[in-house]
Design brief:
heterodimer, A: 138 residues, OB fold (Dihydrolipoamide Acetyltransferase, E2P), five-stranded antiparallel β-sheet, two-stranded antiparallel ribbon, B: 376 residues, alpha/beta, Peroxisomal Thiolase, Chain A, domain 1, 2 domains, nine-stranded mixed β-sheet, 12 helices, 29% helix, 17% strand
Chain lengths: 138, 376
Amino acid sequence: MNDAQSPQRPIPEPDADSAPYWQAASEGRLSLPQCAACGRIAFPPRQICPACNASRMEWITLSGRGTVYSHCVMHERFVRGVNPPLAIGQIELEEQAGLRLVTNLLGCAPEAVRIGMPVEAVFEEIAPGVRLPQFRPR
Amino acid sequence: MPGWNLRNRAAIVGVGYTPMLRSTDRSLGTIAVEAALAAIADAGLTREDIDGYIGMPNAPSPAARHLDGVDEISAVYLAAALGMKEPAWLMDQSGQPTGAVAAACHVVASGLCNYVLVLRTMYNPVGRRYQEASQTSAGGPLQYGLPYGVSGGIAMLAHWLQRYMHDYGATREALYSVVANDRRHARLNPVAYWRDKELTLDDYMNARPIYAPMCVFDCDIPVTAAGAVIVTTAERARDLRHPPAYVSGVANSLQPGSRIFEISGVARKDVQVAQIYDGFSPFVWNWLERLGYCGTGEAHLYTQDGRIGLGGETPINTFGGQLGEGRLHGMGHLREGVMQVMGRAGERQVPGVQHSLVVNGFVGSHPYFNLMLSRG
């Protein structure tokens, strides 16, 4: 476990696709755009549905529940301010099969992470007003 | 499904490359021009014959500064540095050299160019680690990875490997077969970075973990080097120095793995040698299954018992792969595929090569290409 990260981690730069994602995270919500036509949820966020190309995407708040699809342990520091050892998980969200995002796994020793482990979102403040979606065992 | 009207109508006729160096005081532009001149000379041509160029400039290291001539070489830089006069085709593309060769086939077959130079340079950042990311902010695709410690592709491959081991009972001991195969072949390649160094199972199992379960030897060694090939029409190819490596098929890696066999008309069993992209070791398992050399979940068994070595069923990565030679982003695979079909691979030569497969990129995630090269 390495929940004590230094304060100089790279800060995500919101763009036109992602601004609502980071805004929601700063409010403690996991949010992604869902296609109003076909119902597919897009990650990374897109303004046109990658599944059906409809252009009406609605931002929904997700439950924040998921399972570990896969995981690894970062043993060396490659990114400024991100300290090893650190568990990096690929989390499949419960709302949609194959909808996966990559975060750290907090509140659990890296070697204790297992595929299929139920997890829930938490929001880690890395700079004033900037919170990263993260996951921990539930 | 559409076919391809250019089967065996274009060919690779020359290769050039530079030594694999960890650092050098010579500029990347110099290294690029040297590889280009070597390829031109190898084909028996002169600079004046080259009227087209396709390159892959992007420096993939997270530590890259993207400075033309320093850590990247653009088409504009190369054309000027090589002194190309009025090129009819000049192009930068993303992806790997097989895709550039596929495009070059079209450029020469159309009659627009006589000889197209395809070149890849790679740069190992001096004084910095290859995967080092010192940004204070993360935009674009990096915003979803860098703040979590994900730098470059290793974590993605570690996730793939962890899941594969979980689903199919594969082990790191089994993955050693892929790395050891590369390192064994590298001993026969005079330019391979690891040509003088064995890697035992103990060395591998006790190696530094990077993104576990991936260790340092599952990752190719970053180098500063360049490789180049010349593409021309089948008619011109016949009059040049070497037996041409005809391009019998091209397939995008987003298409089904069987596509390269269908479009080339060459059955998998008739391929004598294959160069399969191995920037990270698990790629090889993934591709072997996708190409149909074995069933899903069976590659960790398939790569055992010398089956992929010289003298085996289908020798793979006979030059040592990127894990043994160095990180040339697919250009080493292309060069070796060409040398094998030309019959010029020396100690590494597989007997009677009629068809030589070259696979770049990662299945399903990048618009990279597979090539089938055939002897006339």
